[in-house]
Amino acid sequence: MADLSSKDVERAEFAFSIYDSDGTNVIDAVDLGNVLRALNLNPTNATIEKMGGTKKKGEKKLKLDEFLPIFSQCKKDKDQGCYEDFLECLKLYDKQENGTMLGAELSHTLLSLGERLTDVECDEVIKDCMDPEDDDGFIPYAPFLKKMMVLL
């Protein structure tokens, strides 16, 4: 790939190989988002689907030479958001400017903005990533975001 450095190709090949369960240089398209996220990209579910990802296992396979152009395209996509972008968004809910926000506002945000989560997905994210609320219902949002970004 002309757009990818040899280091990028090497990283992509390694990440791809992790999801190549039988060593045939093929992954299930349901894992496309996981491979891209393993490469520190943050594509939306809509982008993954547009690039050939599927929602169900066994619907489609992707070869490494099909994956590399997808990786290259996603790498160029500036509309993914990064930790700093998401942190700035959550600061809008930090009324006391002390690094905390209401846990209920975080839940509402996950359920209503951007690529909305389902109630079940929201509960799972909160259980896995959110620190306990203090007595007033506030949580520190930076640690939540760091945990969330690791899961992505």
UniProtKB/TrEMBL annotation:
GO cellular component: muscle myosin complex
Stretches assigned to the EF-hand domain: 7-42
Gene Ontology MF terms: calcium ion binding
UniProt xrefs under Gene3D superfamilies: EF-hand
SUPFAM superfamilies: EF-hand (SSF47473)
UniProt keyword terms in alphabetical order: Calcium, Motor protein, Muscle protein, Myosin, Repeat
InterPro entries: CALM/Myosin/TropC-like, EF-hand-dom_pair, EF_Hand_1_Ca_BS, EF_hand_dom
Record keyword Transmembrane helix present: no
Quaternary structure and partners: Myosin is a hexamer of 2 heavy chains and 4 light chains.
Protein name from the UniProt record: Myosin light chain alkali
Native source species: Temnothorax curvispinosus
